[in-house]
Amino acid sequence: MWRIVLPLTASIAAVPLVAAPARVTMAGAVGGTMQGSPASVLPAGTGPAPTVDTARPVALKAMAVAFPHAALRPAIVSRAKWRADETKRDPRAHYANGVTAIFIHHTDTPNDYNCADVPLTLRNLYTGQTRDQQWGDLGYNFLVDRCGNIYEGRAGGVDRPVVGSHTQGFNQGTAGIAAIGTFGRGTKVPAPMEHAIAVLAAWKLGLRGVDPRSKVRLTSTNDKSRYSKGTSASFYAISAHRDGFATDCPGEAMVARLPAIRDLAARLQGRVLREPARVQLSQALPSLDGGH
Fold first, then answer.
1. At what angle do helices 191-206 and 275-290 cross, to 10 degrees?
2. CA–CA distances in Å: residue 15 to residues 11, 37, 149, 166
3. Most CB within 10 Å of its CB: which of 5, 138, 167, 226?
């Protein structure tokens, strides 16, 4: 598969963008391990990582394949950079057929951390979720700190549909993004963090052409979620953890910011906002640029 990388001419807030143009043309749970039957199981990190978020091979033919709502890929701190001990995790990575929704979480850890110390926080979370929770790896696919840095969570390839253990019953075909901190009622969500979540969601959902403001239908894979096994339910493409599981996560403050995050993610995909959404976005921009 060919990878097309365009030079970036402008940065967006605190999140550097490094790959995937807006239009690409090719010639030619919390709780327990992964549920359901993954589409494929491969050793993590083996084989070429596709640039399209799907486990299905893409045949290169004479026709052009366009992705009109792809978004720029943000810089993502790799597991190697935050020094994940790869001997602690399950060596297998589980894959779905694609990511059509994202669940937002918080880590329920202190908010007054130094961003330089986040790698240590990640290693502690990793130990707890592999040793104590026995999830086989970090449950979240990505984590974002208050400075707007994005970190690779679960192993298997950031641009692939890796099945995590972040939202009981709805790990299949979704990605989990965890905001590092605790965001209960009255807590200010840092503007760089909010922006980074939107940038990451725009890119990840754009790999499948999913509008971040849309509704999607997901089917529960077990009886421990808010929906019994086999039940189909409607979710926003960017939803809160508590929408699928009986929890307060990601906290009232983060939930209140999800409409603005959806709108910004849609705009980053190059989508035209509907009039009501445009009003919400104008109200959200001051917080994204200068905090709350």
1. 130
2. 7, 35, 7, 24
3. 167
Q: Which residues contact 205 (CB under 8 A, 6 or more apart)?
A: 99, 100, 101, 102, 211, 212, 237, 238, 265, 269
Q: Round to whole Å and give the CA distance between 168 and 226.
A: 9
The phi and psi torsions of 258 (rounded to 5 degrees) equal -60, -40
C-alpha 176/C-alpha 99 separation (Å) is 10
Q: Model pTM?
A: 0.74
Partner residues linked to 233 by β-bridges = 218
| Distance from C-alpha of 72 to C-alpha of 21, rounded to nearest angstrom | 6
Rounded to whole angstroms, the Cα distance separating 179 from 263 reads: 18
pLDDT > 70 fraction of the chain, expressed in percent and rounded? 71
The CA distance from 149 to 67, in Å, is 26
